[in-house]
Fold this sequence. Notes:
Elements: H1 10-40, H2 46-73, H3 82-88, H4 100-127, H5 131-154
Helix pairs in contact: 1-2, 1-3, 1-4, 4-5
Amino acid sequence: xxxxxxxxxxxxxxxxxxxxxxxxxxxxxxxxxxxxxxxxxxxxxxxxxxxxxxxxxxxxxxxxxxxxxxxxxxxxxxxxxxxxxxxxxxxxxxxxxxxxxxxxxxxxxxxxxxxxxxxxxxxxxxxxxxxxxxxxxxxxxxxxxxxxxxxxxxxxxxx
Length: 159
């Protein structure tokens, strides 16, 4: 087994980089969705939701950078074109969403998709003894589970 500079198996690191690129593409679409609903939200809850959506897209933007830097740390090259993001993402596209409940449902659906990807990466990073990626995924999952719970509570729906 060949190890890279940070002591991880080269083959497993390449595989994790590929998985992280899929996550990166999905986070970019999630980020764009958040920007769109931030800009286009209307209604009586505008002031509260406008601020909340900005908080979420700011956090998503930071996570995009963390994911890209982790890919580089593992020796990979982060995806960086819209074409790549479209081709590699499963998060739904939210277009022209102006209603509060539609926006919140898009966030829940997007985070649910991200969580599936992150749990798979968490499992793979554990098998690769990649504590850096493992810790990142654990942090993301914890935060996103709480956000899903809060959004579902706002919708008055069960988790």
